[in-house]
Amino acid sequence: MNENKLVIGLGNILLKDEGVGVRCIEYLRSRGLDNDIKLVDGATLGFDLLDEIKDFEKVVVVDAVDMGKEPGHITSFDAEQLLSLPCGEKFSLHEIGLIDVIQVGKKIGYNFGNVKIVGIQPKEVSRGDSLSEIIEEKMPVLVERVLKEIDNQKGE
Amino acid sequence: MSGKDIHVDVHHIARVEGHGNILVDVKSGELKEVKLEIVESPRFFEAMLVNRRFSEAVHITSRICGICAISHTNASLKAIEDALGIKPTWQTETLRRILTAAEIIDSHVLHYFFLAAPDFVGAPSVIPLASTSPDVVKTAIRFKKLAHDICDTIAGRHTHPISMVVDGFTNLVTEDQMLELLPKIKKVLENDIPKTVEFFSKLKIPQLERKTDNVCLTHPDEYAFYDGMIKSSETGEYKHRDYKLKMAEHVVDHSTAKHAFGPLKPYMVGALSRFNNNSGQLMPRAREVAEKLELQAPSYNPYQITLAQIVESVHCLESTIELIEELLSRGIKDEREDRPPIAGWATKLPQIKKSWGVGVVEAPRGLLVHEYKFNDDGLIESANCIIPTAQNLANIEADMKKLVPEMLDRPREEITLLLEMLVRAYDPCISCSAHMLKVDFIE
Fold first, then answer.
1. DSSP letter assigned to residue B13
2. Please, which of A63, B268, B359, B407 could form a disulfide with B79 given CB 3.0 to 4.6 Å?
Protein backbone atom coordinates (compact mmCIF):
# COMPACT_ATOMS: atom_id res chain seq x y z
CA MET A 1 0.00 0.00 0.00
CA ASN A 2 1.35 3.42 -0.97
CA GLU A 3 -0.45 5.47 1.62
CA ASN A 4 0.75 5.30 5.17
CA LYS A 5 -1.73 7.72 6.70
CA LEU A 6 -5.42 7.05 7.22
CA VAL A 7 -8.15 9.26 8.63
CA ILE A 8 -11.52 7.63 9.36
CA GLY A 9 -14.57 9.72 10.22
CA LEU A 10 -17.31 7.94 12.12
CA GLY A 11 -20.94 8.84 12.68
CA ASN A 12 -24.46 9.01 11.36
CA ILE A 13 -25.06 12.19 9.38
CA LEU A 14 -28.84 11.91 9.90
CA LEU A 15 -28.37 12.65 13.59
CA LYS A 16 -26.87 16.13 13.48
CA ASP A 17 -23.60 16.29 15.47
CA GLU A 18 -23.41 12.51 15.64
CA GLY A 19 -22.16 12.71 12.05
CA VAL A 20 -19.30 15.11 12.79
CA GLY A 21 -16.64 12.51 11.94
CA VAL A 22 -18.10 12.00 8.47
CA ARG A 23 -18.50 15.77 8.00
CA CYS A 24 -14.83 16.18 8.89
CA ILE A 25 -13.87 13.77 6.08
CA GLU A 26 -16.04 15.73 3.64
CA TYR A 27 -14.38 18.96 4.78
CA LEU A 28 -10.88 17.56 4.28
CA ARG A 29 -11.80 16.19 0.87
CA SER A 30 -13.55 19.32 -0.40
CA ARG A 31 -10.58 21.49 0.54
CA GLY A 32 -8.02 19.17 -0.98
CA LEU A 33 -6.30 18.60 2.35
CA ASP A 34 -5.81 14.94 1.66
CA ASN A 35 -2.55 14.94 -0.37
CA ASP A 36 -0.90 11.95 1.19
CA ILE A 37 -3.74 10.84 3.45
CA LYS A 38 -6.36 8.22 2.71
CA LEU A 39 -9.76 9.45 3.85
CA VAL A 40 -12.51 7.01 4.80
CA ASP A 41 -16.12 7.86 5.49
CA GLY A 42 -16.51 5.18 8.12
CA ALA A 43 -20.15 6.00 8.85
CA THR A 44 -21.29 3.61 11.54
CA LEU A 45 -18.71 0.92 10.83
CA GLY A 46 -18.23 -1.55 13.62
CA PHE A 47 -15.85 -4.46 13.58
CA ASP A 48 -14.98 -3.69 9.99
CA LEU A 49 -12.73 -0.94 11.31
CA LEU A 50 -10.21 -3.62 12.19
CA ASP A 51 -9.49 -4.30 8.56
CA GLU A 52 -9.38 -0.65 7.64
CA ILE A 53 -6.84 0.16 10.29
CA LYS A 54 -4.31 -2.60 10.06
CA ASP A 55 -2.43 -1.74 6.86
CA PHE A 56 -1.54 1.82 7.79
CA GLU A 57 1.36 3.24 9.74
CA LYS A 58 -0.67 6.08 11.16
CA VAL A 59 -4.41 6.20 11.77
CA VAL A 60 -6.64 8.92 13.17
CA VAL A 61 -10.28 8.18 13.97
CA VAL A 62 -12.57 11.22 14.26
CA ASP A 63 -15.79 10.80 16.19
CA ALA A 64 -18.37 12.54 18.34
CA VAL A 65 -17.62 11.65 21.94
CA ASP A 66 -19.78 12.48 24.92
CA MET A 67 -17.23 13.57 27.51
CA GLY A 68 -19.57 15.70 29.53
CA LYS A 69 -17.65 18.80 28.39
CA GLU A 70 -18.91 21.93 26.70
CA PRO A 71 -20.04 21.43 23.08
CA GLY A 72 -17.14 21.67 20.67
CA HIS A 73 -14.52 20.57 23.20
CA ILE A 74 -11.85 18.62 21.33
CA THR A 75 -9.60 15.96 22.86
CA SER A 76 -7.28 13.31 21.46
CA PHE A 77 -6.60 9.92 22.97
CA ASP A 78 -4.47 6.92 22.21
CA ALA A 79 -6.60 3.89 21.51
CA GLU A 80 -5.11 2.27 24.61
CA GLN A 81 -6.09 5.25 26.76
CA LEU A 82 -9.63 5.01 25.52
CA LEU A 83 -10.09 1.71 27.30
CA SER A 84 -9.46 3.28 30.69
CA LEU A 85 -11.53 6.44 30.26
CA PRO A 86 -14.58 6.98 32.45
CA CYS A 87 -17.04 7.01 29.58
CA GLY A 88 -19.89 5.12 31.17
CA GLU A 89 -21.27 1.91 29.81
CA LYS A 90 -21.72 3.06 26.26
CA PHE A 91 -18.89 5.05 24.82
CA SER A 92 -20.27 5.76 21.42
CA LEU A 93 -23.66 6.09 19.82
CA HIS A 94 -22.84 3.75 16.98
CA GLU A 95 -24.20 0.28 16.76
CA ILE A 96 -21.00 -1.30 17.93
CA GLY A 97 -18.89 1.17 19.84
CA LEU A 98 -15.30 1.89 18.97
CA ILE A 99 -14.37 0.72 22.43
CA ASP A 100 -15.96 -2.70 21.76
CA VAL A 101 -14.02 -2.97 18.54
CA ILE A 102 -10.73 -2.13 20.23
CA GLN A 103 -11.35 -4.53 23.10
CA VAL A 104 -12.19 -7.42 20.79
CA GLY A 105 -9.40 -6.53 18.37
CA LYS A 106 -6.80 -6.58 21.11
CA LYS A 107 -7.86 -10.06 22.18
CA ILE A 108 -7.45 -11.50 18.73
CA GLY A 109 -4.06 -10.00 18.05
CA TYR A 110 -4.67 -6.57 16.54
CA ASN A 111 -2.37 -3.78 17.64
CA PHE A 112 -3.68 -0.26 18.09
CA GLY A 113 -0.38 1.46 18.78
CA ASN A 114 -0.78 3.29 15.49
CA VAL A 115 -4.26 4.62 16.24
CA LYS A 116 -5.18 8.00 17.69
CA ILE A 117 -8.75 9.11 18.34
CA VAL A 118 -9.79 12.72 17.99
CA GLY A 119 -13.10 13.28 19.77
CA ILE A 120 -15.34 16.30 19.80
CA GLN A 121 -18.15 16.89 22.27
CA PRO A 122 -21.46 17.08 20.35
CA LYS A 123 -24.11 19.67 21.16
CA GLU A 124 -27.16 18.04 19.62
CA VAL A 125 -27.71 14.44 18.66
CA SER A 126 -31.19 14.41 17.21
CA ARG A 127 -32.97 14.26 13.90
CA GLY A 128 -31.44 16.45 11.23
CA ASP A 129 -28.83 16.20 8.52
CA SER A 130 -26.75 19.24 9.40
CA LEU A 131 -24.37 20.00 12.24
CA SER A 132 -25.33 22.40 15.00
CA GLU A 133 -23.92 25.88 14.56
CA ILE A 134 -21.30 25.64 17.27
CA ILE A 135 -19.91 22.34 15.92
CA GLU A 136 -19.93 23.70 12.36
CA GLU A 137 -17.89 26.68 13.59
CA LYS A 138 -15.43 24.36 15.29
CA MET A 139 -14.81 22.36 12.13
CA PRO A 140 -11.61 24.21 11.08
CA VAL A 141 -10.17 23.67 14.58
CA LEU A 142 -11.13 20.01 14.49
CA VAL A 143 -9.55 19.57 11.08
CA GLU A 144 -6.38 21.31 12.22
CA ARG A 145 -6.17 18.94 15.18
CA VAL A 146 -6.69 15.91 12.96
CA LEU A 147 -3.93 17.01 10.59
CA LYS A 148 -1.61 17.71 13.50
CA GLU A 149 -2.22 14.29 14.97
CA ILE A 150 -1.70 12.44 11.72
CA ASP A 151 1.57 14.30 11.14
CA ASN A 152 2.93 13.97 14.65
CA GLN A 153 1.96 10.46 15.25
CA LYS A 154 4.79 8.00 15.23
CA GLY A 155 4.47 4.97 13.03
CA GLU A 156 4.88 1.57 14.55
CA MET B 1 -43.41 -22.79 42.61
CA SER B 2 -46.94 -21.97 41.50
CA GLY B 3 -48.42 -18.99 43.27
CA LYS B 4 -45.18 -17.16 42.62
CA ASP B 5 -44.99 -13.43 41.86
CA ILE B 6 -42.47 -12.50 39.21
CA HIS B 7 -41.82 -9.08 37.84
CA VAL B 8 -39.15 -8.88 35.19
CA ASP B 9 -38.15 -5.44 34.04
CA VAL B 10 -35.27 -5.34 31.60
CA HIS B 11 -34.09 -1.93 30.50
CA HIS B 12 -32.10 -1.78 27.32
CA ILE B 13 -29.57 0.95 27.24
CA ALA B 14 -30.00 3.77 24.74
CA ARG B 15 -28.88 3.30 21.20
CA VAL B 16 -29.42 5.46 18.19
CA GLU B 17 -32.20 3.40 16.65
CA GLY B 18 -34.05 2.85 19.87
CA HIS B 19 -34.44 1.49 23.34
CA GLY B 20 -36.18 -1.73 24.19
CA ASN B 21 -37.52 -2.93 27.50
CA ILE B 22 -38.95 -6.28 28.47
CA LEU B 23 -41.69 -6.22 31.10
CA VAL B 24 -43.18 -9.39 32.55
CA ASP B 25 -45.63 -9.40 35.43
CA VAL B 26 -46.76 -12.62 37.09
CA LYS B 27 -49.07 -12.49 40.10
CA SER B 28 -49.78 -15.62 42.16
CA GLY B 29 -48.48 -17.80 39.37
CA GLU B 30 -50.72 -16.18 36.76
CA LEU B 31 -49.36 -14.18 33.85
CA LYS B 32 -50.80 -10.68 34.06
CA GLU B 33 -48.73 -8.79 31.58
CA VAL B 34 -46.01 -9.25 28.95
CA LYS B 35 -44.74 -6.29 27.02
CA LEU B 36 -41.89 -5.55 24.71
CA GLU B 37 -41.58 -1.81 24.95
CA ILE B 38 -39.82 -0.16 22.08
CA VAL B 39 -39.14 3.51 21.78
CA GLU B 40 -37.80 4.18 18.36
CA SER B 41 -38.46 6.61 15.63
CA PRO B 42 -38.98 5.22 12.15
CA ARG B 43 -41.22 8.19 11.36
CA PHE B 44 -38.33 10.46 11.80
CA PHE B 45 -36.65 9.28 8.62
CA GLU B 46 -39.91 9.46 6.74
CA ALA B 47 -40.33 13.10 7.71
CA MET B 48 -36.79 13.79 6.56
CA LEU B 49 -37.67 12.62 3.04
CA VAL B 50 -40.51 15.08 2.52
CA ASN B 51 -39.79 17.70 -0.15
CA ARG B 52 -36.65 15.91 -1.36
CA ARG B 53 -35.93 14.93 -4.94
CA PHE B 54 -35.80 11.24 -5.74
CA SER B 55 -32.06 11.39 -6.26
CA GLU B 56 -31.62 12.49 -2.63
CA ALA B 57 -33.93 9.84 -1.20
CA VAL B 58 -31.51 6.99 -1.86
CA HIS B 59 -28.60 8.61 -0.06
CA ILE B 60 -30.70 9.62 2.92
CA THR B 61 -32.34 6.23 3.36
CA SER B 62 -29.08 4.34 2.97
CA ARG B 63 -27.96 6.06 6.17
CA ILE B 64 -30.95 4.88 8.20
CA CYS B 65 -29.12 1.75 9.19
CA GLY B 66 -25.38 1.11 9.38
CA ILE B 67 -25.95 -2.58 8.77
CA CYS B 68 -28.73 -2.64 6.20
CA ALA B 69 -27.61 0.17 3.90
CA ILE B 70 -27.84 -1.98 0.76
CA SER B 71 -31.38 -3.15 1.60
CA HIS B 72 -32.60 0.39 2.22
CA THR B 73 -30.91 1.51 -1.01
CA ASN B 74 -32.53 -1.30 -3.00
CA ALA B 75 -35.97 -0.67 -1.47
CA SER B 76 -35.62 3.05 -2.16
CA LEU B 77 -34.44 2.54 -5.77
CA LYS B 78 -37.22 0.04 -6.44
CA ALA B 79 -39.86 2.44 -5.08
CA ILE B 80 -38.56 5.23 -7.32
CA GLU B 81 -38.32 2.93 -10.35
CA ASP B 82 -41.86 1.75 -9.64
CA ALA B 83 -43.04 5.37 -9.69
CA LEU B 84 -41.09 6.08 -12.89
CA GLY B 85 -42.22 2.87 -14.58
CA ILE B 86 -38.64 1.65 -15.12
CA LYS B 87 -37.58 -1.98 -15.12
CA PRO B 88 -33.78 -2.18 -14.77
CA THR B 89 -31.74 -4.57 -16.91
CA TRP B 90 -30.78 -8.13 -15.95
CA GLN B 91 -27.21 -6.94 -15.37
CA THR B 92 -28.26 -4.16 -12.98
CA GLU B 93 -30.57 -6.45 -11.05
CA THR B 94 -27.94 -9.17 -10.88
CA LEU B 95 -25.39 -6.78 -9.40
CA ARG B 96 -28.01 -5.66 -6.88
CA ARG B 97 -28.71 -9.31 -6.02
CA ILE B 98 -25.01 -9.91 -5.36
CA LEU B 99 -24.84 -6.82 -3.12
CA THR B 100 -27.92 -8.03 -1.25
CA ALA B 101 -26.31 -11.43 -0.66
CA ALA B 102 -23.17 -9.74 0.67
CA GLU B 103 -25.22 -7.67 3.09
CA ILE B 104 -27.18 -10.71 4.27
CA ILE B 105 -23.88 -12.48 5.02
CA ASP B 106 -22.43 -9.43 6.77
CA SER B 107 -25.46 -8.84 8.97
CA HIS B 108 -26.15 -12.50 9.79
CA VAL B 109 -22.51 -13.09 10.74
CA LEU B 110 -22.58 -10.11 13.09
CA HIS B 111 -25.67 -11.56 14.72
CA TYR B 112 -24.85 -15.22 15.07
CA PHE B 113 -21.23 -14.82 16.07
CA PHE B 114 -21.13 -11.54 17.97
CA LEU B 115 -24.62 -11.09 19.42
CA ALA B 116 -26.17 -14.57 19.76
CA ALA B 117 -23.16 -16.87 20.31
CA PRO B 118 -22.12 -15.31 23.67
CA ASP B 119 -25.50 -16.35 25.14
CA PHE B 120 -24.98 -19.97 24.19
CA VAL B 121 -21.52 -20.20 25.71
CA GLY B 122 -22.41 -18.26 28.84
CA ALA B 123 -20.34 -15.20 27.99
CA PRO B 124 -21.76 -11.76 28.80
CA SER B 125 -20.63 -10.36 25.44
CA VAL B 126 -18.37 -10.98 22.50
CA ILE B 127 -15.43 -9.44 24.37
CA PRO B 128 -14.77 -12.42 26.67
CA LEU B 129 -15.66 -14.71 23.76
CA ALA B 130 -12.72 -13.21 21.90
CA SER B 131 -10.47 -14.49 24.72
CA THR B 132 -11.96 -17.96 25.06
CA SER B 133 -12.68 -18.62 21.38
CA PRO B 134 -10.46 -16.28 19.35
CA ASP B 135 -10.77 -18.51 16.28
CA VAL B 136 -14.53 -18.02 16.22
CA VAL B 137 -14.13 -14.26 16.27
CA LYS B 138 -11.41 -14.41 13.61
CA THR B 139 -13.67 -16.52 11.39
CA ALA B 140 -16.45 -13.96 11.79
CA ILE B 141 -14.10 -11.15 10.84
CA ARG B 142 -13.00 -13.04 7.70
CA PHE B 143 -16.66 -13.43 6.68
CA LYS B 144 -17.31 -9.76 7.21
CA LYS B 145 -14.19 -8.78 5.29
CA LEU B 146 -15.39 -10.83 2.32
CA ALA B 147 -18.83 -9.19 2.42
CA HIS B 148 -17.18 -5.78 2.47
CA ASP B 149 -14.85 -6.62 -0.38
CA ILE B 150 -17.88 -7.54 -2.48
CA CYS B 151 -19.72 -4.31 -1.61
CA ASP B 152 -16.61 -2.18 -2.07
CA THR B 153 -15.98 -3.70 -5.48
CA ILE B 154 -19.51 -3.27 -6.83
CA ALA B 155 -20.98 -0.33 -4.90
CA GLY B 156 -17.86 1.72 -4.25
CA ARG B 157 -18.11 1.78 -0.50
CA HIS B 158 -19.04 -0.92 1.90
CA THR B 159 -21.21 0.72 4.50
CA HIS B 160 -23.15 3.25 2.51
CA PRO B 161 -23.12 2.50 -1.20
CA ILE B 162 -22.35 5.41 -3.49
CA SER B 163 -22.56 4.02 -6.99
CA MET B 164 -26.08 2.55 -6.82
CA VAL B 165 -28.55 4.81 -8.64
CA VAL B 166 -31.89 4.56 -10.42
CA ASP B 167 -31.63 2.06 -13.29
CA GLY B 168 -27.93 1.33 -12.90
CA PHE B 169 -24.57 2.20 -11.42
CA THR B 170 -22.52 5.38 -11.69
CA ASN B 171 -19.36 3.28 -11.88
CA LEU B 172 -19.58 -0.15 -13.39
CA VAL B 173 -17.53 -2.96 -11.93
CA THR B 174 -15.11 -4.63 -14.37
CA GLU B 175 -14.95 -8.30 -15.28
CA ASP B 176 -11.43 -8.53 -13.81
CA GLN B 177 -12.67 -7.15 -10.49
CA MET B 178 -15.48 -9.69 -10.38
CA LEU B 179 -13.08 -12.47 -11.30
CA GLU B 180 -10.88 -11.55 -8.34
CA LEU B 181 -13.81 -12.01 -5.95
CA LEU B 182 -14.48 -15.62 -6.92
CA PRO B 183 -11.53 -17.34 -5.17
CA LYS B 184 -12.14 -15.27 -2.02
CA ILE B 185 -15.76 -16.43 -1.83
CA LYS B 186 -14.82 -20.05 -2.53
CA LYS B 187 -12.17 -19.93 0.19
CA VAL B 188 -14.66 -18.81 2.85
CA LEU B 189 -17.15 -21.42 1.68
CA GLU B 190 -14.55 -24.21 1.85
CA ASN B 191 -12.61 -23.18 4.96
CA ASP B 192 -14.85 -21.17 7.23
CA ILE B 193 -18.28 -22.68 6.73
CA PRO B 194 -17.41 -26.15 8.09
CA LYS B 195 -15.92 -24.60 11.26
CA THR B 196 -18.96 -22.38 11.71
CA VAL B 197 -21.37 -25.27 11.32
CA GLU B 198 -19.36 -27.37 13.74
CA PHE B 199 -19.37 -24.60 16.35
CA PHE B 200 -23.12 -23.99 16.16
CA SER B 201 -24.16 -27.63 15.83
CA LYS B 202 -22.82 -28.22 19.34
CA LEU B 203 -24.83 -25.44 20.97
CA LYS B 204 -28.02 -26.18 22.82
CA ILE B 205 -30.88 -24.22 21.29
CA PRO B 206 -33.73 -23.44 23.74
CA GLN B 207 -37.12 -24.94 23.00
CA LEU B 208 -40.29 -23.05 22.20
CA GLU B 209 -43.03 -24.02 19.75
CA ARG B 210 -45.60 -21.49 18.62
CA LYS B 211 -47.06 -21.68 15.17
CA THR B 212 -47.12 -18.30 13.52
CA ASP B 213 -47.69 -16.71 10.13
CA ASN B 214 -44.43 -16.65 8.14
CA VAL B 215 -44.25 -13.66 5.82
CA CYS B 216 -41.51 -13.00 3.25
CA LEU B 217 -40.90 -12.49 -0.45
CA THR B 218 -41.20 -15.47 -2.75
CA HIS B 219 -40.02 -15.83 -6.34
CA PRO B 220 -40.56 -18.68 -8.81
CA ASP B 221 -36.87 -18.82 -9.85
CA GLU B 222 -34.90 -18.25 -6.68
CA TYR B 223 -34.77 -18.13 -2.88
CA ALA B 224 -36.08 -14.58 -2.77
CA PHE B 225 -34.24 -11.64 -1.28
CA TYR B 226 -34.28 -8.92 -3.94
CA ASP B 227 -37.64 -9.40 -5.61
CA GLY B 228 -40.89 -11.34 -5.66
CA MET B 229 -44.43 -11.51 -4.34
CA ILE B 230 -45.16 -11.04 -0.63
CA LYS B 231 -46.06 -14.49 0.69
CA SER B 232 -47.89 -15.30 3.89
CA SER B 233 -47.91 -18.93 4.95
CA GLU B 234 -51.42 -18.38 6.27
CA THR B 235 -53.18 -16.01 3.89
CA GLY B 236 -51.55 -16.34 0.46
CA GLU B 237 -49.62 -14.02 -1.86
CA TYR B 238 -49.78 -10.27 -2.44
CA LYS B 239 -48.36 -7.92 -5.08
CA HIS B 240 -45.84 -5.36 -3.82
CA ARG B 241 -48.26 -2.45 -4.21
CA ASP B 242 -50.83 -4.31 -2.11
CA TYR B 243 -48.48 -4.66 0.84
CA LYS B 244 -50.92 -2.89 3.16
CA LEU B 245 -53.39 -5.74 2.78
CA LYS B 246 -50.95 -7.87 4.73
CA MET B 247 -48.98 -5.36 6.70
CA ALA B 248 -51.65 -3.18 8.26
CA GLU B 249 -50.11 -0.88 10.80
CA HIS B 250 -51.23 -0.87 14.34
CA VAL B 251 -50.00 1.53 16.96
CA VAL B 252 -49.93 0.26 20.52
CA ASP B 253 -49.61 2.65 23.42
CA HIS B 254 -46.50 1.16 24.99
CA SER B 255 -44.49 1.45 21.83
CA THR B 256 -43.76 4.35 19.56
CA ALA B 257 -42.66 1.94 16.86
CA LYS B 258 -45.47 0.82 14.66
CA HIS B 259 -46.37 -2.73 15.56
CA ALA B 260 -47.34 -4.40 12.31
CA PHE B 261 -50.14 -6.94 12.44
CA GLY B 262 -51.59 -9.02 9.67
CA PRO B 263 -55.35 -8.73 9.28
CA LEU B 264 -55.95 -11.19 12.12
CA LYS B 265 -52.81 -11.86 14.11
CA PRO B 266 -49.10 -11.17 14.53
CA TYR B 267 -46.67 -12.52 11.95
CA MET B 268 -42.97 -13.22 11.69
CA VAL B 269 -40.49 -11.84 9.14
CA GLY B 270 -36.81 -12.67 8.70
CA ALA B 271 -34.54 -15.64 8.17
CA LEU B 272 -36.77 -18.32 9.68
CA SER B 273 -39.85 -17.14 7.76
CA ARG B 274 -37.86 -17.18 4.53
CA PHE B 275 -36.50 -20.62 5.34
CA ASN B 276 -39.95 -21.95 6.19
CA ASN B 277 -41.59 -20.58 3.04
CA ASN B 278 -38.79 -21.02 0.51
CA SER B 279 -36.37 -23.71 1.74
CA GLY B 280 -37.07 -25.82 -1.37
CA GLN B 281 -35.07 -23.23 -3.34
CA LEU B 282 -31.91 -23.28 -1.23
CA MET B 283 -28.58 -24.10 -2.90
CA PRO B 284 -27.14 -27.60 -2.25
CA ARG B 285 -24.55 -26.71 0.40
CA ALA B 286 -27.08 -24.64 2.29
CA ARG B 287 -29.43 -27.63 2.39
CA GLU B 288 -26.64 -29.84 3.72
CA VAL B 289 -25.91 -27.29 6.44
CA ALA B 290 -29.59 -27.13 7.41
CA GLU B 291 -29.53 -30.90 7.83
CA LYS B 292 -26.40 -30.80 9.95
CA LEU B 293 -27.93 -28.11 12.15
CA GLU B 294 -31.12 -30.18 12.35
CA LEU B 295 -33.20 -27.32 11.01
CA GLN B 296 -36.32 -28.46 9.19
CA ALA B 297 -39.11 -26.48 7.55
CA PRO B 298 -41.48 -25.53 8.96
CA SER B 299 -39.81 -24.66 12.25
CA TYR B 300 -41.93 -22.82 14.77
CA ASN B 301 -39.13 -22.36 17.29
CA PRO B 302 -38.00 -18.71 17.10
CA TYR B 303 -34.70 -19.60 18.80
CA GLN B 304 -33.85 -21.37 15.53
CA ILE B 305 -33.78 -18.05 13.66
CA THR B 306 -30.05 -18.04 14.37
CA LEU B 307 -29.66 -21.41 12.62
CA ALA B 308 -31.69 -20.19 9.63
CA GLN B 309 -29.28 -17.26 9.38
CA ILE B 310 -26.32 -19.65 9.13
CA VAL B 311 -28.09 -21.61 6.39
CA GLU B 312 -28.84 -18.38 4.52
CA SER B 313 -25.22 -17.24 4.75
CA VAL B 314 -24.14 -20.44 3.02
CA HIS B 315 -26.84 -20.03 0.39
CA CYS B 316 -25.71 -16.46 -0.25
CA LEU B 317 -22.08 -17.54 -0.75
CA GLU B 318 -23.18 -20.19 -3.24
CA SER B 319 -25.64 -17.99 -5.09
CA THR B 320 -23.04 -15.20 -5.34
CA ILE B 321 -20.60 -17.58 -7.01
CA GLU B 322 -23.32 -18.65 -9.45
CA LEU B 323 -24.37 -15.07 -10.24
CA ILE B 324 -20.79 -13.87 -10.77
CA GLU B 325 -20.07 -16.80 -13.10
CA GLU B 326 -23.19 -16.01 -15.11
CA LEU B 327 -22.31 -12.30 -15.29
CA LEU B 328 -18.85 -13.19 -16.55
CA SER B 329 -20.16 -15.63 -19.13
CA ARG B 330 -22.53 -12.98 -20.51
CA GLY B 331 -19.90 -10.24 -20.21
CA ILE B 332 -20.32 -6.98 -18.24
CA LYS B 333 -21.40 -4.18 -20.58
CA ASP B 334 -21.88 -0.44 -20.31
CA GLU B 335 -25.61 -0.30 -21.02
CA ARG B 336 -26.12 3.42 -20.57
CA GLU B 337 -26.59 4.32 -24.23
CA ASP B 338 -29.46 1.89 -24.57
CA ARG B 339 -31.33 3.07 -21.50
CA PRO B 340 -33.87 5.89 -21.17
CA PRO B 341 -32.37 9.24 -20.07
CA ILE B 342 -34.45 9.03 -16.93
CA ALA B 343 -31.79 6.90 -15.25
CA GLY B 344 -29.99 8.09 -12.16
CA TRP B 345 -26.66 8.36 -13.93
CA ALA B 346 -28.05 10.71 -16.61
CA THR B 347 -26.58 14.19 -16.35
CA LYS B 348 -29.97 15.84 -16.70
CA LEU B 349 -32.32 14.50 -14.10
CA PRO B 350 -35.91 14.05 -15.22
CA GLN B 351 -38.92 15.72 -13.71
CA ILE B 352 -41.08 13.16 -11.94
CA LYS B 353 -44.75 14.03 -12.22
CA LYS B 354 -47.36 13.20 -9.62
CA SER B 355 -46.92 9.49 -9.02
CA TRP B 356 -46.26 6.88 -6.40
CA GLY B 357 -44.17 3.79 -6.07
CA VAL B 358 -43.49 0.92 -3.72
CA GLY B 359 -40.24 -1.00 -3.27
CA VAL B 360 -40.17 -4.24 -1.29
CA VAL B 361 -37.03 -6.26 -0.53
CA GLU B 362 -35.85 -8.74 2.04
CA ALA B 363 -33.43 -7.01 4.41
CA PRO B 364 -31.37 -9.35 6.62
CA ARG B 365 -33.99 -9.07 9.38
CA GLY B 366 -36.98 -9.43 7.05
CA LEU B 367 -39.38 -7.65 4.77
CA LEU B 368 -38.58 -3.99 4.18
CA VAL B 369 -40.98 -1.62 2.40
CA HIS B 370 -40.40 1.89 1.08
CA GLU B 371 -43.32 3.78 -0.40
CA TYR B 372 -43.02 7.29 -1.81
CA LYS B 373 -45.64 9.66 -3.17
CA PHE B 374 -44.32 12.38 -5.47
CA ASN B 375 -46.07 15.70 -6.09
CA ASP B 376 -46.31 17.63 -9.37
CA ASP B 377 -42.95 19.27 -8.72
CA GLY B 378 -41.33 15.85 -8.56
CA LEU B 379 -40.68 16.17 -4.83
CA ILE B 380 -41.54 13.55 -2.24
CA GLU B 381 -44.89 14.44 -0.72
CA SER B 382 -45.02 11.57 1.75
CA ALA B 383 -42.97 8.50 2.55
CA ASN B 384 -43.66 5.29 4.39
CA CYS B 385 -40.88 2.94 5.52
CA ILE B 386 -41.85 -0.32 7.22
CA ILE B 387 -38.86 -1.93 8.84
CA PRO B 388 -38.58 -5.61 9.78
CA THR B 389 -38.13 -5.07 13.52
CA ALA B 390 -41.43 -3.16 13.75
CA GLN B 391 -43.21 -6.09 12.09
CA ASN B 392 -41.75 -8.63 14.49
CA LEU B 393 -42.58 -6.83 17.75
CA ALA B 394 -46.13 -8.21 18.03
CA ASN B 395 -44.87 -11.70 17.24
CA ILE B 396 -42.15 -11.49 19.90
CA GLU B 397 -44.78 -10.48 22.47
CA ALA B 398 -46.95 -13.43 21.43
CA ASP B 399 -43.92 -15.73 21.87
CA MET B 400 -43.24 -14.31 25.33
CA LYS B 401 -46.87 -14.91 26.31
CA LYS B 402 -46.46 -18.56 25.33
CA LEU B 403 -43.01 -18.93 26.88
CA VAL B 404 -43.44 -17.34 30.31
CA PRO B 405 -46.14 -19.69 31.67
CA GLU B 406 -44.01 -22.65 30.50
CA MET B 407 -41.05 -21.68 32.68
CA LEU B 408 -42.49 -20.22 35.85
CA ASP B 409 -40.77 -22.88 37.96
CA ARG B 410 -37.31 -21.85 36.80
CA PRO B 411 -35.02 -19.39 38.60
CA ARG B 412 -35.65 -15.81 37.65
CA GLU B 413 -32.13 -15.44 36.22
CA GLU B 414 -32.94 -18.21 33.78
CA ILE B 415 -36.31 -16.68 32.90
CA THR B 416 -34.65 -13.35 32.21
CA LEU B 417 -31.91 -14.93 30.11
CA LEU B 418 -34.39 -16.95 28.03
CA LEU B 419 -36.52 -13.85 27.43
CA GLU B 420 -33.49 -11.83 26.41
CA MET B 421 -32.29 -14.63 24.16
CA LEU B 422 -35.73 -14.77 22.56
CA VAL B 423 -35.67 -11.06 21.78
CA ARG B 424 -32.08 -11.31 20.53
CA ALA B 425 -32.94 -14.35 18.36
CA TYR B 426 -35.09 -12.03 16.24
CA ASP B 427 -31.93 -9.97 15.70
CA PRO B 428 -33.88 -6.75 16.25
CA CYS B 429 -32.22 -3.47 15.48
CA ILE B 430 -31.94 -3.01 19.23
CA SER B 431 -29.92 -6.18 19.74
CA CYS B 432 -26.56 -4.46 19.51
CA SER B 433 -27.19 -2.73 22.81
CA ALA B 434 -28.85 -5.72 24.36
CA HIS B 435 -25.67 -7.12 25.82
CA MET B 436 -25.25 -4.08 28.01
CA LEU B 437 -28.52 -4.48 29.80
CA LYS B 438 -29.44 -3.27 33.21
CA VAL B 439 -31.79 -5.79 34.75
CA ASP B 440 -34.12 -4.96 37.63
CA PHE B 441 -36.27 -7.49 39.41
CA ILE B 442 -39.05 -6.22 41.60
CA GLU B 443 -40.87 -8.86 43.57
1. P
2. B359
Q: Rg of the Cα trace of chain A? A: 14
List, for residues A71-117, the tens digit of each pLDDT value: 999 988 888 777 765 544 443 434 456 777 888 888 888 888 888 98
Fold of the CATH domain B44-394: Cytochrome-c3 Hydrogenase; chain B (1.10.645)
Model ipTM over 0.85: no
Query: Rounded to 5 degrees, what are φ and ψ at A108?
Result: -110, 25
* Test mutation, B39, B63, B64, B68, chain A, max A CBs within 10 A: B63
Is the pTM higher than 0.80? yes
Do B134 and A107 make contact, defined as CB atoms within 8 angstroms?
Answer: yes
> By a Cβ cutoff of 8 Å, what residues of chain A touch chain B?
12-15, 18, 41-48, 50-51, 89-90, 93-96, 100, 103-104, 107-109, 127, 129
Best mutation target among B59, B141, B430 (most A Cβ atoms within 10 Å) is: B141
Nearest to B144 among A43, A48, A104 (CB): A48
Q: Residue A104, Cα to own-chain centre: how many angstroms?
A: 18
Q: Where are the domains of chain B?
A: 6-41+396-441, 44-394
For A109: left if phi > 0, alpha if psi spans -120 to 50, otherwise beta; the answer is left
Instruction: Say how far apart CA B74 and CA B360 lie, in whole Å.
Output: 8
